[in-house]
Inverse folding.
C-alpha cells in the first residue's frame, strides 16, 4: 500500500476537490493507498488570513476523513528573517516542516495546491510530486500567472502536469500530463473579445480590471481545473501500482530513468465524459 503525505494550502474548493477525489478512489479500491497526514502551511489562528473560511472547510474535510492534520503558519515563522534573507527563511521553514511530519511515515509526498516553494532539502529528502497547471515546458508560477501568460502568448493549447519536486522549481521530471485545445468552439469568440479589449487596453490593465472573471481567462481556468482532479488521481495510481517511483528527484520506471512523461489526455477526457 502506498503511503501518501498530502501537502496543501487549502485555499479554495480546488484543494478540497483534489483530496476528495483521492479519498474516494481509495475508498472504492481504485487506489491502493492511504493518506498518512495532511500538512498545511497556514493555521487558522493568524489575524491576517484572507481565506480563513476556505481553510476551515479544508481542515474540517481532513479531520472528517480521519487524516492527521499538521499545520505550521508560514506567516508567523520568522517574519524578520523572511524580510532580510528569503533563501535562509525558506530553508528554516523547511526544517520546521520536516520536524512537523517526522513522526509520519510516507512513501510519496503529493503537493496538491501547495502555494509555497518547497525548500531544496525537503525535495531531496523525500520523493515528492507536484501538480502544476501547465504543460511540460510551459509557463511557471501560479495558475493565475500561467493563464495570463497563455493569453499574452496567444497559445493554442493548455494542460496540466504532475512533476517531481526538485530544487529547479516547476521543472522537475514530468511524470504525467494532459492537454486540451484552447481554440475552436467555445474559445474563438472569447479570443475575439480579448482582441477587442486589447485595442484600447494593455493586457495588464485588463487583468487588473477584470481579474479571474475575464471570460477567456475564466474559460481556460474552468477547463484546466476540470482535468486536474482525474490527472492527479491517475498519476498517483502509477506510484500505487509500482509502475513509477521517484529516486534522487528523478522519475524512474522499472530499473531505469523514464524517457519522458505519460500522456494521460485520453484517459482524463474519458473520465470527464463519464461524469456528464
Amino acid at each position: 500500500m502506498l503511503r501518501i503525505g498530502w501537502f496543501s494550502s487549502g485555499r479554495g474548493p480546488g484543494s478540497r476537490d483534489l483530496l476528495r477525489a483521492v479519498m474516494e478512489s481509495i475508498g472504492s479500491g481504485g487506489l491502493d493507498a492511504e493518506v498518512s497526514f495532511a500538512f498545511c502551511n497556514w493555521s487558522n489562528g493568524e489575524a491576517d488570513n484572507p481565506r480563513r473560511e476556505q481553510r476551515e472547510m479544508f481542515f474540517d474535510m481532513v479531520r472528517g476523513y480521519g487524516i492527521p492534520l499538521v499545520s505550521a503558519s508560514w506567516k508567523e515563522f520568522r517574519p524578520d528573517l523572511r524580510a532580510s534573507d528569503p533563501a535562509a527563511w525558506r530553508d528554516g521553514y523547511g526544517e520546521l516542516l520536516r520536524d512537523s511530519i517526522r513522526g509520519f511515515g510516507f512513501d510519496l509526498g503529493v503537493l496538491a495546491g501547495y502555494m509555497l516553494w518547497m525548500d531544496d532539502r525537503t525535495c531531496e529528502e523525500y520523493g515528492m510530486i507536484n501538480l502544476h497547471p501547465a504543460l511540460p515546458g510551459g509557463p511557471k508560477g501560479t495558475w493565475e500567472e500561467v493563464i495570463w501568460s497563455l493569453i499574452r502568448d496567444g497559445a493554442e493549447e493548455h494542460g496540466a502536469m504532475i512533476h517531481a519536486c526538485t530544487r529547479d522549481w516547476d521543472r522537475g521530471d514530468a511524470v504525467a500530463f494532459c492537454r486540451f485545445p484552447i481554440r475552436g468552439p467555445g474559445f474563438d469568440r472569447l479570443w475575439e473579445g480579448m482582441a477587442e479589449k486589447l485595442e484600447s487596453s494593455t493586457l495588464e490593465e485588463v487583468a487588473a480590471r477584470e481579474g479571474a472573471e475575464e471570460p477567456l481567462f475564466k474559460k481556460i481556468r474552468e477547463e484546466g481545473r476540470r482535468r486536474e482532479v482525474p490527472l492527479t488521481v491517475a498519476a498517483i495510481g502509477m506510484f500505487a501500482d509500482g509502475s513509477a517511483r521517484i529516486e534522487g528527484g528523478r522519475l524512474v520506471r522499472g530499473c531505469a530513468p523514464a524517457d519522458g512523461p505519460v500522456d494521460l489526455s485520453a484517459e482524463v477526457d474519458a473520465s470527464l465524459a463519464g461524469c456528464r
Observations:
- The chain has one domain: 2-140+157-179+227-274.
- The chain has a mean pLDDT of 90.
- The radius of gyration is 19 Å.
- Residues 2-140+157-179+227-274 form a domain with the Rossmann fold fold (CATH 3.40.50.170).
